Amino acid sequence: MSDDDAALDVAFLALADPVRRRIIARLSRGPATVNDLAEPFEISKQAVSKHIQVLEQAQLVTRSRDAQRRPVHLNPARLEALTAWIDQYRLVREGQFRSLDAVLESSAGQAAPKAKD
């Protein structure tokens, strides 16, 4: 298994959890503290911190230090890498559908009855 495959596995495993996906969605609006991120959940701040650690290990988020605060930030470059991986397969499939559409259109054109004068 390549390093890229292992990184994809870690990232998609991190995103498999609904709490972590909601954290990512919240961070898409801007940085937030653990307290901010924990607010909508009925779980402890410690549990939210563990979710953040999983996202950090997957390189989906980063933390910075701002005096006493340690805001969590989304890592857009990592999300872009995941999107690029997904897009390579989506583009192949779209090309196949376009080819199928062309075949169906030509078949429909040949099968259409001609109008009598």
Mean pLDDT: 88
Q: Which range does the strand content fall in?
A: 5-15%
Report low-confidence residues grouped into runs of 5 or more: none
Alpha-carbon Rg, integer: 23 Å
Separation of termini? 68 Å
What is the number of beta strands? 2
Q: What is the helix content?
A: 55-70%
Q: Number of helical segments?
A: 5
Strand order of the largest sheet: 1-2
Largest sheet: 2 strands, antiparallel
- Helix and strand element order: HHHHEEH
What's the overall geometry?
Answer: elongated
Structural category: mainly alpha
Looking at this protein, list some descriptive labels.
117 residues; single chain; two-stranded antiparallel ribbon; mainly alpha
Describe what you observe in this structure:
The chain has 117 residues and is mainly alpha-helical. The chain is built from five helices and two strands; from the N terminus they run ααααββα. The chain has helices at 3-15, 18-27, 34-38, 45-57, 76-111, and strands at 61-63, 72-74. Strands 1-2 form a two-stranded antiparallel ribbon. Helix 1 runs antiparallel to helix 4. The longest helix has 36 residues, at 76-111. It is elongated.
